[in-house]
Amino acid sequence: MATNTGHIFDGSGRVLAVLRAEAAAHDLPLTILSDGIEVTTTYGSISARQDGKTVHLSLTSARPGDLTVLRDAIHQHLDADVHVEWRNLPHGMPENLHILQVHSVTQISPAFLRLRLVGDVAPLIAGGFHIRLISPARGMQRWPQIGTDGHTIWPDDMPLPHRPVYTIAASADDTVMIDVFRHATGRTLRWIAALQPGDEVGVMGPGGSGMPKTKHLSLWGDETALPAILRIIRDAPADMHGAATILVPSNADIRTVENAQFRVKWLLRDDQDHLIRALKSGYQDALDTFLWCAADGAQVQAARIFADQLNIPKDRRHIAAYWQL
């Protein structure tokens, strides 16, 4: 396991409150300790222990690169005047940053583009399903660096300043495939349209959720969750079975699913609440069922309320916002 420790000597009273709020906002398990709290994420755990006016932070993850994600998350949510003194920091580019090359961009359905990237993809195959795409300004080769205060420093001229999160839909040999939903507008689509074979693209990851640890899985998602749901179904172990309900814009976006262990129901988008109505009327709870749901923020909030009403514990559910209206 990889670990990183740090200390906050000023503004420490706000740290525990921030971690509690983020755990609640993202449906993360929270453990109350005698002198603090511990938050469990898909990237690892964050422990914060109070000692007078000082907070001691301890990060633990399966991969060193995930510590970068945890440190950045802490810096992002702390006030600017709160300083963390980290120990044993790495230097240079983040350990979870991988530089790949564009192979091709193809349209695989009316609502989806497929970006194929080639290079050393082995580090991206194990672990979570999700990555962030980053790109230097054209003609520039400046990549993020880890700063002396532990958080990632991003060049200010990058075409994708929001660093969008996507799912690795599939991989083969030296190639990863990333399916991108074509939102009506967006910087990512403009960036993809300008890509040429051979262009360098930064991929940070892998991370986020991966294969649920269960034998009975109930999957619910809109078009942005389609790549993750299809990967789960395709890579599901032999003793896993379940059902998936997927919302897509049109019949032409329906994919072929080849796994007899899963029943798949396709919904065509009628309105923004179509998925949550289907979830409330069609979900069948059981002690061995794991609920997986991903969609826009409003639908996800409704799904969490529904799961709470059914008393589904957080270790039997993954409910994540993939985008915001």
UniProtKB/TrEMBL annotation:
Similarity comment: family membership: Belongs to the SIP oxidoreductase family.
Domain (FAD-binding FR-type) ranges: 95-213
Pfam families xref list: FAD_binding_9, SIP
Alphabetized Gene3D superfamilies for the sequence: Nucleotide-binding domain of ferredoxin-NADP reductase (FNR) module, Translation factors
Gene Ontology molecular function: oxidoreductase activity
Stated name of the protein: NADPH-dependent ferric siderophore reductase
InterPro entries xref list: FAD-bd_FR_type, FNR_nucleotide-bd, Riboflavin_synthase-like_b-brl, SIP_FAD-bd, SIP_fam, SIP_rossman_dom
